[in-house]
Each structure stands twice: as C-alpha cells, then as structure tokens.
Amino acid sequence: MFYAWQERVTSLRSSSAVSSQHPTAHWLEIISTRGTIRWDYYKSSVVYSQEQSAESARLTTLQISEIRNQMFLDEIQHFLDVLRNKEQPVCSLEDGVRSLELALAVHSSARLFAQSMPT
To answer: What tens digit of pLDDT does each residue of 14-42 get?
Structure first.
C-alpha cells in the first residue's frame, strides 16, 4: 500500500540509539500538514496517521518484514538479470555518481558538525 504524499512536509524527526539505559530505537517520522508517516525498524512497521479532526486520526499500519525481504530478493534478481542482459539497469551510472556525491556530502557535513560541538 503506497500513498501519494502531496502535502507540505512540516518536519522530520528520527532516532537511532543503542544504550544500556534505554531500549534500542531506530525510526524516522515525516510530519506533514495533514498526517504523519512513522517508520520503525525494530517493530518492522510503517504507520500512517491521517489527521481527520482535532480528536481523531485514521491509522494504517503495515508490517514490512515480508516486504523488506522481498525487496532485497527483487533487487538481487534485477541485478542478475542486468548481468545476463535480460534487463536494463533501473539506475544509470549518473544516478549512482549523484547518490555517492550526496552520501559523501552528508558524511562530510556530519563530521564537520561533530567537530564543531564542544567536548
């Protein structure tokens, strides 16, 4: 089940923590003007809540463990089909280069932010 997300995103929140004092958490929340999508890695779920009024919201929960596994299987199958010249790659070399540049920029930015924090 996929949703066309055509609303204005008002905030993004995430948590990725492992601690002996707190339970492990790894989630991402996208909040828009009309609802929220929350992905939780450890619960293997995606919850979509659509604001209907100040008192109520419609919740849709997807269990993603099967979907996630199938995603990897499909990706491997596609890769093998590309190697066998049965399919064209979904992403071009240019897409790959841009993705790598973005990932390196995020990494560099995070490192600079960490260095600017007082110790």
So the answer is: 676 655 666 677 888 888 877 888 888 87
List CB contacts of 90: < 8 A, sequence separation 6 or more: 78
Mean of all residue pLDDT scores within the chain? 78
Q: Which residue has the tokens 């909040």?
A: 31
Look up tokens 């992403």; give the residue: 91
Q: Are 57 and 50 in contact (CB under 8 A)?
A: yes
Write down the residue that tokens 């995603």 correspond to.
71
For 113, phi then psi, to 5°, come to: -65, -45
State both tokens at 78.
């596609």
Q: What is the pTM of this model?
A: 0.43
116: left (phi > 0), else alpha (psi -120 to 50), else beta? alpha
Task: Kindly list the strands in the beta sheet with 9-17, ordered across the sheet, starting from the edge strand earlier in the chain.
Answer: 9-17, 25-32, 35-40, 45-51, 57-63
